[in-house]
Design goal:
Number of helices: 18
CATH topology: Growth Hormone, Chain: A
Helix content: over 70%
Largest sheet: none
Number of domains: 1
CATH class: Mainly Alpha
Shape: globular
Strand content: under 5%
Distance between the termini: 45 Å
Structural class: mainly alpha
Number of strands: 0
Order of helices and strands: HHHHHHHHHHHHHHHHHH
């Protein structure tokens, strides 16, 4: 395998864990680009097919829900079948979904491709992939590396959205899905060549560890393991608080801003490409904010961090509908909100790992992540319905902002317990 010879060449210069992290970043980046695709295609689909915005939003919301619900099963599948096999299967599914969506002629076809197939494919490589990689390959700097991997979501928007918006505006919208489908196929080659299962496959220990990782692939059924983890999590108050705050996180980020911001800007007279540029700029600041959040999560009380992130996000969402949508006001929102876009992920993962331990936490986090995407699906569909019923987005943004204030309060209720004390009891 190419990864064995590359690891030998890099010996004494850079730990191969960082090569794995870089490849994971690239994969998550492309997945983020695929998930961002509906944001630039809502206006073209309305124009070409005459579909209502809530009909399109329904397909997107189903995809977001499946994106989250697949997380725990994906984590279990990675333990049972291996990371490489799981990633390659998901990439094949994603490419099929994107190419297939070019041939849809009804909202039902959009639901099957963007909703079901793309939801399963992207959900298989959600942040549970990042958590699994970090736990397998890193003992030191886990928060910082996870922050960088989380930032790939924003970087995907940064790289893809302006280009996709330009293609959608200047050519057939189908070229957009062809492009992201081709990117998914190209990644399969890289994953097969460069992704080992564990550090010992290239003769290494985890970065920063002096003890070999003795965990191995399980023979248990992934469905059984995923629901076993859910059973453990449901007996914990920490799980429910993290699930609830992450539901609000999804509701106030990729479900609302990620799906509807461009359409909201178009409603206010801002061209689609310029609106995509706002998301690009937001992505730049999110890279800074999320990376910094990972660094902070290694050093400070993660409950306080979550309280601050949700509170500031809520204020920014309630500000936007009442701004004048000038360059200055949109720029202020973009910087302020961008720094906080998904900065909540590193503290949430850290609290999950501290509570449930490194072996169980990927599956537990998968269920918490399911809450995130259920919130995103609620906002994606709900905001579309509100837009159709009221002809504006004000109520959607105000409701999301108030929900974030509630999440800030809930974050401070999360207990501070040790893994040694609570994991065996799997309660409270």
């Amino acid at each position: 395998m190419l990864y064995r010879s590359l690891a030998t060449r890099l010996q004494n210069r850079v730990h191969y864990a960082y090569v794995v992290a870089a490849l994971t970043f690239l994969v998550l980046l492309v997945v983020a680009g695929i998930r961002a695709t509906p944001a630039v295609l809502i206006p073209p689909l309305e124009k070409n097919f005459g579909w209502r915005r809530d009909e399109i939003a329904l397909a997107v919301s189903i995809g977001l829900a499946l994106f989250g619900l697949m997380g725990p099963f994906a984590a279990a599948a990675m333990q049972r079948f291996g990371v490489r096999r799981t990633m390659c299967a998901a990439l094949v599914l994603l490419a099929s979904a994107m190419v297939g969506s070019a041939f849809v002629t009804t909202p039902l076809g959009l639901i099957l491709t963007w909703g079901v197939l793309a939801g399963i494919g992207t959900g298989t490589m959600a942040m549970v992939l990042g958590v699994t990689i970090v736990n397998r390959w890193f003992e030191k700097n886990r928060g910082s590396v996870l922050g960088l991997l989380t930032a790939s979501t924003a970087t995907g928007s940064l790289v893809f959205l302006p280009l996709l918006a330009w293609i959608a505006e200047h050519s057939d919208w189908r070229n957009v899905v062809y492009l992201v489908g081709a990117c998914a196929l190209a990644l399969i080659v890289l994953v097969l060549a460069l992704m080992p299962e564990r550090p010992r496959d290239v003769g290494l220990l985890r970065y920063g560890s002096t003890v070999e990782d003795v965990s191995d692939a399980t023979r248990a059924n992934p469905l059984t393991e995923a629901f076993r983890a859910l059973g453990i999590g449901m007996r914990s108050g920490t799980f429910w608080l993290l699930f609830g705050t992450f539901f609000i996180c999804g509701l106030s980020t990729n479900g609302l801003i990620g799906v509807h911001l461009i359409a909201f800007c178009v409603d206010n007279g801002i061209p689609e490409v310029k609106a995509a540029g706002l998301l690009m700029l937001m992505g730049i600041f999110d890279i800074i904010g999320t990376t910094a959040s990972g660094w902070l999560s290694d050093r400070y009380d993660n409950r306080v961090l979550l309280c601050a992130y949700y509170g500031l996000r809520g204020l920014s969402l309630m500000y936007l509908p009442y701004s004048d949508f000038s360059i200055g006001s949109l720029g202020l929102f973009t910087v302020f909100y961008g720094l906080d876009w998904i900065a909540t992920v590193p503290p949430t993962v850290r609290l999950t790992t501290d509570r449930f331990g490194p072996q169980l936490s990927p599956m537990i986090y998968g269920w918490i992540g399911a809450g995130h995407q259920l919130g995103a699906a609620t906002a994606a569909f709900g905001a579309g319905v509100l837009r159709v019923q009221t002809n504006r987005y004000v109520e959607a943004f105000m409701l999301a902002g108030m929900a974030c204030i509630v999440a800030a309060i809930l974050a401070m209720l999360i207990g501070r317990w040790s893994v040694r004390r609570l994991v065996p009891a799997a309660a409270t």
